[in-house]
Structures are given as C-alpha cells and as structure tokens.
Predict the 3D structure of the following.
Amino acid sequence: METIDWKNLGFGYMKTDYNIRAYFRNGKWEEPTLTQDETITMSMAAAGLHYGQECFEGLKAFRGKDGKVRIFRVDENARRMIRTAEYTCMAPPPLELFVEMVKEAVRKNERFVPPYGTGASLYIRPLLFGTGIQIGVKPADEYLLIVFVMPVGPYYKEGFKPIRVIVDRKHDRAAPRGTGHVKVGGNYAASLLSGEKGKYKGYPSVLYLDACEKKYIDECGAANFFAIRAGSYITPDSPSVLPSITNMSLRQLAQDMGLKVENRKVPLDEVPTFEEVGCCGTAAVISPIGSIYDPETEETYTFGDEPGPWSVKLYEALRGIQSGDLPDPHGWVTVL
Ligand code: PLP
Ligand code: COI
C-alpha cells in the first residue's frame, strides 16, 4: 500500500479503493453496486449537466483510540440530502439507502480512515444528480447517487488557528427564496468568483451578508458563522444559510456547557461587540476568525491570533465525541 503522510494531509481528492453507486430508474431506486471506476458514463444531455439538478453532502468518519471507526451524524446528512432533492425536484434517496451506502463506502475503504491522533479524518462525499436526458427545462426521470471517500486534513491551512475574513458586498451566494438553504452545486458556483477574489486579497474566507438589505450576517464561505458574547452562543437565522449539522451540534454542546443559544438575525453592526467569532462546518470543523475586514467602511475588527476559550472548549467537545474520546450523550455517532 502507498504510504500516506496522515499528519500532513490537506483537504483534497485522493483515489481510494471503492465507490458505491445506486441508480433511480423507472420510478424506483435500484440496488447499490460497488466499483473501482472513478469515472461516470452518461449522456451529454443529462439534466444534471444542464439545469443544475445536482447536489452533494459532506460528512466524516473518525478512528478512535479503540481502533473503531465512528461516522458523525449520518442520518442528518441523509435528511438534508432528501430536503435538497425534494426542493430541486430530484428523486430523494430513502434515508436507509443513504445511510447504508455511506457505511458500505467507509467499510470498503477502511484502510483509508486515518489513524487516531493524526488530526486527519475520512471525508465522505455523497453526490446526487440527474442522469436522465432532458433538454426541455423539466426534472430528469433518472438519477445517480454516488458515495466516495478520501482521507483529509484541515480545510484551511491555518487548521485551528484564526483565519482572516473579508466581508463581500458585491456578490451573493444565495437569495432568501432561492437555494441557499439546500446543498446544490449551483450555490458553490455562485460563490467561486467571490472566494477567488477574497483569496487574491489574502483572505481564506468570505463573509456573506443577507442579499436583501446587506445588513445581517449570512455565512462564511462554505461554513456557518457563530459568535460568543457574554455567555451566549450567537448564530444567524437566515433563509439563505445552509443549516449546518456542525452548527446544530455546537448549539447543543453550547447549551450543555451552560451558554445561552441565540439563533437569530445577526447584524454586521454587532461584530465589534463579540468576544469570539468563528466559522463551523464538516470540513472547517471550528475555524476561529482572527479578523473581519469590511471594505466598505475600511474597518478591521480583530479577535486575536489564538482561538478564544469558548471556541477551544466547543472544539474539544465536538472532536472528543467524534473520535470516541468523550461519551456521546446525544447519540450522534454510528460505530461501524
Ligand atoms: N454552509 C455551507 C455553505 C457549506 O457548504 C457547509 C458545508 O457543508 C456548511 C455551511 C457546514 O455544514 P455542515 O456542518 O453540515 O458540514
Ligand atoms: C463541508 O464542510 O462538507 C463542505 O461542504 C464544505 C466544502 C468542502 C464544500
């Protein structure tokens, strides 16, 4: 077997042994099949290529000290893919099919689950799209669900060190009654130019504001936003934010730790009053935010070069449950 430098993995594609696929054809889901093929053969007229009938999920599996593999909140990712599929008129995969395919993809690639203590994990990418031929703007009649996996390290090279963020007032990744609340590829296409401009200026992530008033915080690149102030965990409630499973978990952990949880509109004006800010997601885990630059006011709000105490506590609680170092009181992990 090729040697993998587990401690220095970035966040990127790596070929693993198998992926697992299931077609929806003739009105029903077929039995999933395992393959070593990394490519897909389909019609150039497939609806997924033309009209954006495509969505994905992202979740992780972790190796514990006990050698066991734990998958984090797979049922929540299944539910979110079902919601996304319904919203974009795709065939929603049954929850049990999704969960079974994820488990099988991890089992068959178990040698790629990074060892305990390396900080790396196995990233699981379920992908659903319309393979049915469709040239009129209509939903496809055939879909493919694929689950593939790869070992990954930190999403931002900074790891658990604070990142610099820039407010974007020129682009919106999603609109209030659009697709921001579901995980379609089109949302990421809409964010690419903004993200590239941000990186060019030296900011690994971009803070999006609400598309209507440009007054409230939406989210931060491909992650949700949270802040800590005076014993509260504060996170935006917005129709154009993707409901993050990490954020949902952090809200619960924050409450367990005695913090008050405020899930509400968060005006950008409030930023100077926050004690800690960060972004959170499967890939980002918790990425503390060290500074936020607003190009309109030319103001920079700084939060320090080290993660704040609540961010550290939340990070340790989440990672502890994921790896099995801490008890799992909410039943979030599936032990393989
Ligand atoms: N927001 C966006 C736009 C994302 O792409 C992601 C990543 O999945 C998140 C938030 C975080 O969601 P989760 O914690 O479920 O990974
Ligand atoms: C995730 O955190 O799983 C994401 O979807 C972020 C990004 C890699 C798209």
In short: The chain has six helices and 18 strands.
